[in-house]
């Protein structure tokens, strides 16, 4: 690092002192904490993004959001050149930057890393970082900190892409690195045209009619509501009403996380909505769940990420079976590798259902960074977390195969070409960079119309086992270390045996605990044959977490 670069870094970084006594960890998807603690971390992630861009010679994205967390929190996520999450190899570097006690230590850490990674700070290539933020008020000053971070690296430029959903920013990074246009207009255009294409390919006589045509979306009082309003104007064949568009408090009693965890109606919904198809986004619109308001109660029938996955799997399987029908000469052997990726939170009934369809189901730890990486190993990989994070990935080789079929005039069956066209349209509609509530919603809607299904019919695919999720505030959540895709606790010792003893008391009991990567809590998930039993198991294991880890209430 030359003297000019060093002095710029020392000067600007001294304006962003880290808060005393706070240790930040790079969690499930970046740094997340009360917004007042984050300015210096965001500045430093700006530095990291510039270096990552120099190293990869590609555009990197920085998204300022705390997604489903309460409005007083904020956070920062990094999008790698593919549009996916920051490579996990760089997470320790991110943590040491964020926790460096002063500017001199910070510059030392940077200098060592630049040497180790052989990053050319004054080469030909200039770094480019796309910045986005959600609607949180604290995002305005944090965005400035990120800009300053990028600007502290001499050969780096930041481009403010505006107030966006998280998946939009990831999409833009991916598009730009593929040499494509990457504006919001291009994003909307791709989504609306591929949606239209799927509707045009619907077999005649499938469309659902009547009240079921209407869809009501809870926008979590976040950015997704505004973007859906804009997208709506470009869509024919979909009747959408958007609620919770920003007049209430972000994520408070609204949104996908609330709906999925509490299983009650979000603010703004009520008895008049019984029987109507409803959906919820989270604060930055990277999660999607559907639900039905129950008559005479504030309860909902939840149609979660697992069921969205089941719907997608059914539709894709249908197209693959058309493609794989014998008779025509296809350009490739018909063994498509379709993979399903779930986490321990997947309801046991969903896993049984998918396996019974003959699908390959694999598990990873929680977090888009894990499920996405696994899904990318297949020709078509579908991942969904029960909380509504998910997408469908197509390998480049498989897309070429589909293009070949599509343009192969010697094929006797146009059905085959239609199936290939549908799969190609899905690959353009569904975000290839990350889970995206807007594109996921359009794919769900297109598939329901294709099958001629109501939400009630969809929900009947299988019946969830009763489950309960709880949060436990403990002294140090990092004391919990898990293994086997988070199904077993290896530290503190003895707790897993105690959990096993509780599980053994319940018919069809299943339970695990894990430290959250986005909130300062340990999460408990329990499943059993009745709701009472699932509740009992969750509460008794939460008590164990208290005993072994020390409650903050004691
Ligand atoms: C983030 C991740 C998700 C993960 C969720 C919960 O979601 O992107 O993959 O499922 O956190 O994580 P945890 O249980 O570790 O708190 P979001 O929507 O908050 O960005």
UniProtKB/TrEMBL annotation:
Pathway assignment: Nucleotide-sugar biosynthesis; UDP-N-acetyl-alpha-D-glucosamine biosynthesis; N-acetyl-alpha-D-glucosamine 1-phosphate from alpha-D-glucosamine 6-phosphate (route I): step 2/2
Matches recorded under Gene3D superfamilies: Alpha-D-Glucose-1,6-Bisphosphate, subunit A, domain 3 (3.40.120.10), Alpha-D-phosphohexomutase, C-terminal domain (3.30.310.50)
Family membership noted in the UniProt record: Belongs to the phosphohexose mutase family.
Cofactor note as given: Binds 1 Mg(2+) ion per subunit.
Cofactor: Mg(2+)
Domain Phosphoacetylglucosamine mutase AMG1: 182-289, 304-453
UniProt-recorded name of the protein: Phosphoacetylglucosamine mutase
Lineage: superkingdom: Eukaryota
Enzyme class: isomerase
Catalytic reaction(s) noted: N-acetyl-alpha-D-glucosamine 1-phosphate = N-acetyl-D-glucosamine 6-phosphate
EC number(s) on file: 5.4.2.3
Residues annotated as domain Alpha-D-phosphohexomutase alpha/beta/alpha: 55-92
PANTHER family found in the cross-reference section: PHOSPHOACETYLGLUCOSAMINE MUTASE (PTHR45955:SF1)
Stretches assigned to the Alpha-D-phosphohexomutase C-terminal domain: 484-543
Keyword set includes Metal-binding: yes
SUPFAM superfamilies, A to Z: Phosphoglucomutase, C-terminal domain (SSF55957), Phosphoglucomutase, first 3 domains (SSF53738)
Keywords from the named record: Isomerase, Magnesium, Metal-binding, Phosphoprotein
Keyword Isomerase: yes
Role played: Interconverts GlcNAc-6-P and GlcNAc-1-P.
